[in-house]
Amino acid sequence: MNFDRHNKSGAVRLIFALGFLAASHLAVAETLSRDEAIRLAFQNNRDLAIASLEIRRAATRLKWSGRLENPELEFARTGDGFGEDEGEGVAEIGFSQRFPITTRLKHEKNLRRYEVILAEAEIAEQRRKLAGEVDLALVELIATREKMAVSRELLRLNREIVDFLKQQAKEGLVSSLDVMQATLNGRTLEQQAKSLEAVEKQNLLRFVQHIGLEAGVTVEVETRFHVPGKQPGIDVSLETVLQRRPDYVLALAKTDEAAAAVTLEQAKRWQDVSVRLFVEQEDAIDDPDGLDGNTFSGFGISIPLPLRDQNQEGIEQAEINEEAAAKGVDAARFRIRSECEEAFHLRTDAWELARDASGELLDLAETNLEEFRKAYQQGQASLIQVQRAQEQVLELKTASLEFVADYERAAARVRLVTGDYPGLAVPSK
Question: What's this model's pTM, rounded to 2 decimal places?
Answer without folding.
Answer: 0.76
